[in-house]
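seq as requested:
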Amino acid sequence: MHTRVGWWSEQSILWYERASSRSDFHERLVDLIVPCLEKNETIIEAGCGLGYEAEILKRRGYIIQAYDLSKDVIDAAKRRSQLDIFHCKDFYQLEEKPDTLLCINFGHMDRQSDLAQMLCHAGRKLVCIVSKHSAHGLETRRDRSDLIESLVREKGLGYERKDFSLSFDQPLKSMEEARSFLDWTYLGDSTESYLEFVEKTEDRDYPYIFRNKKKMTQFVVNVE
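C-alpha cells:
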C-alpha cells in the first residue's frame, strides 16, 4: 500500500488526464455550475487541481483565476490549456476577494473553522462541490454532505443544495494497473472491495475500465 502526502503524483496526474480525455465529466460538471455564476463577476477557484473546470469556464467567457499549491498540477494545467489563469499559490494569502469562490472537492467544509475561512474569502457567494464518497455504497467512506448542510444552516446563511451523480470512469492497461490505481485512490480502504467494479473492454489500448459514478453535492452559499 502507498503512503503519500496529498493526492497528486506524476502517476496520478497521468491517470486523471487519461480519464479526462475519454470523458465528458468536466463539461457536464461545469454545466451544473454555470447557473450559479454571472459573466460579469470575478471568480476564483481554490484548489483547482489540473484545472479542467477553470479552463472550461474561461473558454465560456467567465472571469476566473485558479489556484493550487501543487506546482506539478499547475504546470500541467498551463501546458494543456495554454491559459494564464493558473497560479501556484495559496489563495488564502490573497488580499482581494472574488465575487464567487469556487471549491470543487477542496478543503474540509465539514469543519466549522474551515467553512468559516472559506466564507471569509468569498465576496458574495461560495460555490462548493463535495464528494459524497459513496460511489459504490461502501461504508468505509462517509458522506459528509448532511453535516456540511447543518453547519451552513447554523450560520444562518441562505443556501441552495443540489445532489447529483456523474460518471468518471478510469481506463486502465491491465489488472495490475487497476490494483495500483485503486490502492492509490482509495488509500486506507481494501483494494479488493473495489475490484469488482473493474470491467473488461474491447479497447486495445485500455482493455480494462474502472466504473466510477461519482455522487456529489453542490452547495451555493450566499455570503452577503
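Residues 1-5, 135-140 have pLDDT under 50 and may be disordered.
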